[in-house]
Amino acid sequence: MARLSQTRLTRYRELADKGLWDINDKDFRSFYTRAAAEGAELVSNNFSAAGMFRAPHRKTLEGVDIALVGIPLDLGVPNPRPGTRLGPKELRYWSLDRNLVHYKTKVCPFDICNIIDWGDVEFTDDAYNLAACLEQIHADYESFADRDIATLTIGGEHTCTYSVLRALSREGEEPLAVIHLDAHGDTSTNFGGTRISDATLFQVATCEGYIDPEKTIQIGLRGRGVPRCDFSRDSGMRIVYVDELQESGVAAIIEEIYRTIGSGRCYLSIDTDVLDCAVMPGTTLPEPFGLSGVEVRDIIRGAADLDVVGADLMELSPPWDPTGMSSCLASGLAFELLCLLAEAKLRRNGTPKLTHWSGDSS
Ligand SMILES: [Mn+2]
Question: Which CATH class is domain 34-349?
Answer without folding.
Answer: alpha beta
